[in-house]
Amino acid sequence: MDVTVSELIVKFMQRLGIDTIFGMPGAHILPVYDSLYDSPIQSVLVKHEQGAAFMAGGYARASGRIGACITTAGPGATNLVTGIANAYADKLPVLVITGETSTHIFGKGGLQESSGEGGSIDQITLFKGITRYNRIVERTDYLAQTLNRAARILLSPNPGPVLLSFPFNVQSEWVDESILDEIVTSRSERRLNGASLSTSTIAEKLLAANYPVIVAGHGAIRSGAQQQLTQLSEQLAIPVASSLKAKGVIDEQSPLALGSLGVTSSGHAYKYLVEHADLILFLGASFNERTSYLWERQLLGSRTLIQIDNDPEQLSKVFQADIAVQGEINEVLHDLLQRLDGKSRNGGVIRGLVEQLKGDENNDYAIFQSGFSLVRRFFTELESHFPRDAVVFDDNIIFAQNFFQVSSANRYHPNSGVSSLGHAIPAAIGARFAETKPTFAILGDGGFQMCCMELMTAVNYQIPINVVLFNNSTMGLIRKNQHQHYQGRYINCDFINPDFAALARSFGIHYRKLQSEEDVAQMFVEDDLRGGINLIEMVIDKDKFPNYSSRR
Description:
By secondary structure, the protein is an alpha/beta fold. The chain has 22 helices and 20 strands.
């Protein structure tokens, strides 16, 4: 049966399991929008295309499924750049559909033309470095190959954004719907070849180590390895430190949880690694700048290093591992546990050491020696009232990294990719379209003013969300750096905020201001944090800073 290309695009998305697409229409993409009209895919109108990209990324992060966004040509596409860069950094499967001027006017100066011809914007070059694949589809004779490559990337173990741009006239051309049968739109099953891996040697080294430690990254969460990781940790009494993105890979209230490792985190994990560890097992951790304390040599020292990752590019990228294994982490751990054959050891000494480290209130490595009691109380109440099924998107990061003990039943999503301001609110909205779980967006007042209009998207679609706004009337990180490294010569960091209560009223959403710990406790009892749209303002002192240096 013949269908238009615009209809085929929508059917392609349906086969990929896409049920929601975020975007903003324009003249050059209206044929696809018209085909969406009769489809089961929900089309969500955003306030800015950047918000659409962040929502698609938030949807993908929360669900593990493919996120999607759609815009028109020219500025519709260019407004996506930061959001797509964020998805690229986080290896998120995001399908981007954009319109384009008709092919017969390429190079003639068409309105919003992005073909790269005749001095127009070259969209392919613009997105080349932030997508795994992007193409302007000028003809239909290679459409099947293009869609097939897009699907393979989106469904791969290490995905990333894919951008397909369709000229206006091509969207209306007719093609045979059967070409969809040539496209693989399901993930292939893969099996672990246990004999080819070094799991026997890893088991021997773990049993022989005096003070082993696991550093788990987001790759362990992506592979669904939380259960195997917890079992391995408890069976062999191995403490677990996580990267920032992997908070919650093991319940952080576990007696073997060291919290997250990184320059903006508490010093428990750092102190264990530097002063005690003799073997480090890296699971899906890239050991990036944050986690590695700017690749500090004493973290690794003369220790035995074992690295497991499904991405061959990550193996020995930063350090030379003694044993490096490429494979799905959950499968490798399953094989490792079988080879351990129930062996365990007395972990009393290690458990006691971890307890001692976590109980040391005068830890020299800690970055919050005092202060911020209001923020601490907020995260304590969040843990208590939402012990499971909470979804947290966090642009601020530093408070949660130190004060929020994430349970293995919750999900914490820090904005650690390109660390763009204005991410948390649209990403959390996108996630809420994927899963009906209590959702929090945490950010500062500077970032809030970059993305606050997307709250009206939540209002328009009645999407419950809790926005936690830290108000200190400054760009906190910039002010901290200028305080530490530039003799307090503050420039372009302070500003005047709007009346957030009045702003919430104009949005038609609930507002709460937190000025004391009693206010925090009262909010968690009285406010509808599961089914409401809430703006929560928390006032903090702009001249109190965490005790760490960016060391640039």
